[in-house]
Design goal:
globular, Jelly Rolls, alpha+beta, three-stranded antiparallel sheet, 25% strand
């Protein structure tokens, strides 16, 4: 779990992030980051934060921001607020660094997403061309952090269908949305008095397998129905 003062780096986007205020510091209200991006760096994918407002405050340099397909340059002293559910992407079009303060309201689990995504980049597990990990790893991350961030395209419903089964398979193969190597040991939740212990790992995996099989059968039957109608 990130703490104020922690730093992470992205080899893909050229960004170095310093955590200023975390979800724990602000009771979940705010995630505040100090971000320095190298010249020519950019966030690799257009994305959406469905429940978070994102705020850019440029301290030095110039950032190029695209919102809903419209580009604009934002310079030192300027502030831009991106409302929730707004497709956007940004980068540094110049040779000099751009230095900015990024804020996400509410924080949700965005800091955890940053830790996972930047950690995978540092370990060479991100395709530098697409900016994404392999399909199974991305499916697991996408399904877990859908409330924080998802791709602007294709439509979310298509992503849910596409990544739902792949995420189940990915988890069976050991892919995770959160890794202790990047985010530290996960803190145990306080157990309520009389609460039953969680299912054994094999039981959870069995549930995932059953869900995957049911999904495959449903897709097969749907295809049969569609082909029958065409006749």
């Amino acid at each position: 779990m990130a703490k104020a003062g922690d730093t992470i780096e992205s080899p893909v986007s050229g960004a170095c992030i310093l955590f200023l205020k975390t979800a724990r510091d602000t009771y979940g209200e705010l995630l505040q980051l100090d971000d320095v991006m190298k010249g020519g760096g950019r966030v690799p994918i257009e994305h959406v934060h469905p429940y978070m407002e994102e705020r850019f405050e440029i301290l030095s340099g110039t950032a190029r921001l695209s919102m809903r397909g419209q580009e604009r340059d934002v310079g030192a002293g300027e502030t831009v607020v991106i409302p929730a559910r707004t497709p956007h992407v940004w980068g540094n079009p110049n040779e000099d660094e751009v230095h900015l303060i990024l804020e996400f309201r509410p924080a949700l689990r965005m800091e955890e997403w940053f830790e996972t995504f930047f950690g995978l980049q540092k370990d060479g597990k991100i395709n530098p061309n697409s900016g994404l990990p392999n399909l199974l790893q991305w499916a697991v991350i996408s399904r877990e952090y859908e409330d924080e961030i998802y791709l602007a395209s294709p439509p979310l419903l298509v992503q849910r269908v596409r990544f739902g089964l792949l995420a189940a398979i990915g988890k069976l193969l050991g892919y995770k949305a959160r890794y202790a190597a990047y985010s530290g040991a996960e803190e145990p939740l306080a157990r309520r008095e009389g609460e039953r212990p969680s299912a054994a790992p094999w039981a959870k995996r069995g549930g995932i397998v059953v869900g995957a099989i049911v999904t495959l059968i449903a897709l097969f039957l749907l295809r049969r129905v569609r082909s029958g109608r065409r006749r």
